[in-house]
Amino acid sequence: MPVSPRRATLATVAASAGVSVATVSKVLNGRSDVAPATRSLVQSLLQRHDYVAPSPRRAKAMTLSTVEVQFDVDLNAYSTEIIQGAVEAGAEVGVGVVVSIRRDSDRTAAWARDLMAAGRKALIAVTSELTSGQLSAVSRAHLPLVVIDPLNLPRARMTSVGSTNFAGGLAATQHLLSLGHRRIAYIGGPATAACNQARLHGYRAAMEAEGVPVLPDYVQTGHFRYTYGVAAAATLLDLPEAPTAIFAGSDETALGVMEAARGRGLRIPEDLSIVGFDDTQLAPRASPPLTTVRQPLREMGKVALRTALRLAATEKIDSHHVELATELIVRGSTAPAAPDA
User: Fold this and answer.
1) Which Gene3D superfamilies match (predicted)?
2) What angle do CA 305, 306, 309 make, to 5 degrees?
3) 175 and 291 in contact (C-beta within 8 Å)?
4) In 3D, which of 183, 185, 184 has the Cα closest to residue 220?
């Protein structure tokens, strides 16, 4: 039986099942006076039609429209900045923000329908890797979606918000080169992540422009997390020819690099210069304060929420991908390379 692309109603499901609307309503409400075979047929058709039950009582009780900001990893300083921006933008227009963590394995076929049933006007997914099936589920549920720093770029058109990651990677590496460093390594996030690839390309472009070779061992990719920064830096600093400078793909990773360096008795920045990325609250509080590429995380949260609301209102948007400018912030974790480096 063909499934209508429109949002299904009780009448749609009833017609497909060959029963009355009242029978479908009984199944939805868990009534016992429905034959088992009929109940099974109606339930399967409700799922096939992606039926989302209206919640008039809940709608009347709600004082705010809500947008869900969803992460697939534990929250950190980066997440906090994104959330702050989204909450501020929501408060400006009377929209509430609900924050959740939903692992990839939790994004089942009913995931998007459940969000719509909960009354969400839109979904903002942060640093998530969404499959084509998950994107289709969102589309079928008519749930507007905006992704911040997507970890993959699926073929389906997807609205996203990010920053000028390539320019940021370029500026970070040029800064280290200007200080006389030539043995510069890069520690980034997931190899397939679009933001990581852009930062890595910026790093490579700066090195190539100066005619400085990039040694294969000098590029490490894994996760934008503290523990990975410790592990990857340990690998780099144990090389026979260790780097004199490391560009880390996030502030959290950079703090891990600092820890690995201190564990080997290295001084920062005298023995090792470090540059991070994000400029979260961690950066100025590090010891020494971290030189980093400022990513406008709060503004990214604001832009994502405003864009999501425009999609929910079926307004036309100017671009399906927005990049906000990055800026190099020089602090105490970088210094000129030693004369013999």
Assistant:
1) 3.40.50.2300, lambda repressor-like DNA-binding domains
2) 85
3) yes
4) 185
pLDDT digits (tens, 9 = 90+) for 203-217: 999 999 999 999 999
ω before 288 within 30° of 0 (cis)?
A: yes
Domains 63-163+298-324 and 165-296 are alike in CATH topology: yes
> Are 329 and 275 contacting, i.e. CB atoms less than 8 angstroms apart?
no
Burial class (CB in 10 A: 0-12, 13-18, 19+), 238: exposed
Q: For the stretch 31-48, what's the b/e string if a residue is b when 16 or more beta carbons lie within 10 angstroms of its beta carbon?
A: eeebeeebbebbeebbee
The interaxial angle of helices 297-312 and 77-93, nearest 10 deg, is: 50
> Taking Cα atoms as reference points, which of 188, 150, 173, 185 lies closest to residue 300?
150
Start-to-end C-alpha separation, the chain: 72
Q: Please state which CATH class domain 165-296 belongs to.
A: alpha beta
**Per-domain residue ranges for the chain?**
10-48, 63-163+298-324, 165-296
Cα(176)–Cα(206) distance, rounded to whole angstroms?
A: 10
* Residue of 94, 130, 126 lying closest to 111 (CA atoms): 130
How is domain 63-163+298-324 classified at the CATH fold level?
Rossmann fold (3.40.50)
Determine the Cα–Cα distance for residues 22 and 42; give it in Å rounded to an integer: 12
Question: What would the pLDDT profile of 277-331 be if each residue is shown by its tens digit?
Answer: 999 999 999 999 999 999 999 999 999 999 999 999 999 888 888 999 999 999 9
